[in-house]
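Dear colleague,

Thank you for sharing your sequence with our group. We've completed the structure prediction you requested, and as agreed, I am returning the results in plain text so they can be pasted directly into your records. Please verify that the sequence below matches your submission; if there's any discrepancy, let me know and we will rerun it promptly.
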Amino acid sequence: MTVENCGRQVTIERAPQRLYVIGGEAGTLVHAAGGADRVAVFAPLKDEPLGAAAEPLGRAEQQPIKNSKDISREVIIGAAPDMVVTFGLNDFGPDELAAAGIPTLIVSGYCGGFGAGQSDVHDPLEELYRDIETLGRVLGTEQQAKDAVTGLRGRVDAVREKARQSPPADTATAALFIAGPDAQPGAYGKRSMIHQQMESVGLVNVFAGTDERYFEPNTEALIKAAPQRIVALYEAADTTEDAVRRAVTGRADLAAIPAVASDDILVLDFFYSGHGTLAVDGLEQLAAQLAA
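Please find the predicted structure tokens below.
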């Protein structure tokens, strides 16, 4: 079988039985496709939430990583997998694993890379569904994959319909990554999953005109954008929701932003705005916060 992945034609000679899965997003996609029992080695990021996939993925050999720099070609090849599913490969590429007889599928949301600003994706949710269906074909679990996609689509449609029936007020919103009280916030453009999540709950991304996934605007650009609401993304292992809110509202240089002045801050764990199935959980969490 040959499938297209990130512009590459990937040939898989037989249904894989020994997967090496890197990152929770890839893990949730494999789980949704019905392949969690094929995962031989799982390398999640430290403290990464996995939702319903946590227990089945926990049965595999665990090789947690701190960041993408910990991804090792030698370790992967040494584990003798028959396929790799990952969010990226850092200092080496799929061709090097293919030379060792190991095909690689990369999460479509990271086809352009996983660094700031890098993305080839225009419709992150559709790419998420497509990834699950592709994995289902490769693993021979097509029906499970189709059922999973149907369920995810239904949940997304339910949120969108509720937003249409009861649209939120003050829709102009900025999604910002908050690393700490003194760090310059990063922002998300139209190629990000959080952009699509905001659209789905009836919000308007003030940086929708930025054709990137993630970028770092200066303070003047943030003030000029004048968001009435902020979605503050954060890593739960590093801080708390209250600390994130204070990191935004406590900054004097951001006081002129309407959302800061009115303390209209939504918070979302960064991992719930990625390119795995937790993006749908994150969408529901945003909708619940808006409805509260």
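Summary note from our side: The longest helix spans residues 142-165.

Kind regards,
the structure core
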